[in-house]
Every structure is written in structure tokens, then in C-alpha cells.
Amino acid sequence: MLSATGSGNTLSQPAPTNGSGVATGSLSSTIAGSKTVSATISGVAITQTASVTVTAGPVSATQSTVTASPTSIAAGSGTSTITVTARDANGNPVSGVTVALSATGSGNTLTQPASATNASGVATGTLRSTVVETKTISATAGGVALNQTASVTVTVGPVSASQSTVTASPTSITAGSGTSTITVTARDAGGNPISGATVVLSASGSGNTLTQPGPTNPSGVATGSLSSTVAGSKAVSATINGVAIKQTATVTVTAGPVGGRDERERGRDGEPELHGGWLEDRVRHDQRRGHHPDGDRDGHSPDRKPDRVYQHVGHEPGSGRLYRDR
Q1: Is the peptide bond before 158 cis (omega within 30 degrees of 0)?
Q2: How much is the average pLDDT of 19-42?
Q3: Confidence (pLDDT) at 256
Q4: Range in 162-166, 181-185, 186-190, 273-277 the model is least confident about
Q5: Are 195 and 185 in contact (CB under 8 A)?
Q6: Residue 107 contacts residue 57 (beta carbons within 8 Å)
Q7: For residue 200, what are the β-bridge partners?
């Protein structure tokens, strides 16, 4: 009677010994390893034993596995380890086979396993990516495409101070009346938009009114506004989730219309001379009425001072007014 060490064995027992004292049986096994085969003859344990080494079969596409850990990483910074285990049809590890990895999507950096599968049938590589999406990782082992795949979700990374932006439109406004829209776009190191981020604006100079934005939208955008009563160049800065953004926006605040009078004096040639927002029309009496040696048409003396006719120039057509100073 035959017996063998290990598991997964199938032993075919021999028939009685023949005329030469020989009997034969067989051993097969699904489990790789070294098997020691013993025999008893008519109840007597034979001292000699036989050794049989059971090796792994070819790589099985269905029994081999592909796994990822972790299954979620941050774009531009996270790394997932991809583990491939090559097995034969009976689940025995297959050592010494070459593994090649591939991944769907874009922006990926795949590090291929540095060596063939070890004694446990294992080989490892890594995946990084700058693009937010779900990646499917496939593998071949010994040239056999494995049925199992691994999934890695790439999520938005932390706010990047250099990739995020701050812009202003328009870049020039009038003091006391103009408003510039400040647009902040939050991005991670891979340029992916970051939604739901908190944005805080600040501006240099004085007299400023800053309207703070709400959280960034799915495109990573949040908008606020700047107005100011004090002329000058304003540098608008932003923080996103507490990260100071390197880019700033510049808004030039220009002086508005003068609050008091502007005077324009109209000279003898009838052309206005700028003195502010008023027209002074110097028209000599003898020019307006005609000159007479003994006085003008109204009987006034020739040495009478000229009438001064003022016109207030309004901001809108028809809003001015005239008056005369005699």
C-alpha cells in the first residue's frame, strides 16, 4: 500500500506483486510541493521512500489576481501599489514569470514590477496620476492576459498655490462708482478644478469694499467683487482653503468727476477755455449789441464792463443751465 505526504494528492494503489515481486501504482497532485511516497508490503513498512516534486502549472487567467492598495489616491501626489499574483489552474503560485501593467485614462505614471514573480507568485508595481477619474488596471503574467482587473479612483488633490489663479475684470474702475469682478479658480497640482473650496479675498490700499465669494463651483470657480472710493492701484490677493495663491490681480481705481465746479471761459474768439465744469462766456457788450460812439443800442456807456454769461455743463445732454452776471 502506498502513502504520500502533503495535500491534494491522488494515489492509485498497486495490484499484488507479480512474479518478479513488482507492483506499481501512481501519484498525482493539485498542490505544488515535494511529496514523500512510502509503501508497506504485507503490513511491513519499507524503509526506502520515494520523493516526487510537484511544480506549478502554467499561468491561469482566471486564478491569477490583480489588486490595488489604496483604491483611492489624490491626483498628483497619491500612489497606489498594484499587486499581481500569478497562479496556475489549481491556485498554485507561479514564480519567475514577467508581469506587465497597463491602465486606462490619461495623466498616468505606471511603474512596472522591477522583477519577475517571486516564490509566492507575486510582483508589484505602482500607479500615480494627475488626472481625476477612475482608472482600470490590467495585467499580463507570462504573456497571459489576466481576467481580473483593479480599479483606482483618482480624486482632486490639495489646493496648489501655483496652479490656482486670481483675475479681475475690468482692470480699471472709477472711484465711488465702478466695480471689478474678481474671479478665483482653485486647482490642484495637476490643474484639476477643486469644488467646494473656501475663498477669502484681500486688497491693498484704503477705501475698498470687497464682496467675498461663496465656495468654488464644480469648475473650481468662485467670484467676488471690488469697489473703492480711493484712487490708486489695488493688488487683490486670495487664499483658498487657507492656501495663499501666488497670482494676484491688479485693479486701477481712477478718480471720478470733480464734485465742485469746473469752469470753462469762452474767450473773444468764442472758443471755450478750460477752468473746470463751467463755461464763462465773455462777450463784450459792444460785441453783443454793436458799438456806438455815444453808447450801445440800449444807451449804455461804452466803458461798461462786459456781460458774463455762464453755462453750467451738466453730465447729461440738456442738463446744463445759463445765467448772466452783469
Answers
A1: no
A2: 91
A3: 83
A4: 273-277
A5: no
A6: no
A7: 239
Q: Which amino acid is at 121?
A: G
Whether 65-155 shares its CATH topology with 165-254 is answered: yes
Per CATH, which fold does 65-155 belong to? Immunoglobulin-like (2.60.40)
* Sheet containing strand 165-169, strands side by side: 165-169, 180-185, 221-228, 208-211
For the structural domain made of 165-254, what CATH number should be given?
A: 2.60.40.10
SS3 289: helix
- Residue 241 cell numbers, joined: 482653503
Least confident of 13-22, 103-112, 222-231: 13-22
pLDDT of 178: 97
C-alpha 72, offset from chain centre: 16
DSSP character string of 99-154: EEEEESSSSEEEEPPSSS--TTSEEEEEEEESS-EEEEEEEEETTEEPS--EEEEE
Mean pLDDT of the chain: 85
Residue type, 134: T
pLDDT of res. 20: 92
CA distance linking residue 173 with residue 188, whole number of Å: 32
Question: What residue ranges do the domains of the chain occupy?
Answer: 2-54, 65-155, 165-254, 263-325
pLDDT tens across 133-162, in order?
A: 999 999 999 999 999 999 999 999 999 999
Q: Quick one: which of 198, 201, 243 has its CA closest to 217?
A: 198
Residue 231 C-alpha cell reads as 484712487
Half-sphere exposure of 168 (CA within 13 A, CB side): 27
3-state class (DSSP) for residue 44: strand
C-alpha cell at 39: 509503501
Burial call 69-95: b when 16+ CB within 10 Å, e when fewer: eeeebbbbebebebbbbbbbeebbbbb
Please choose, from the candidates 202, 198, 220, 218, the residue with its C-alpha nearest in 3D space to the C-alpha of residue 210. 202
Per the listing, cell 470753462 goes with: 264
Please give the full DSSP string across 209-253, using - where no structure is assigned.
EEEPP-S--TTSEEEEEEEESS-EEEEEEEEETTEEPS--EEEEE
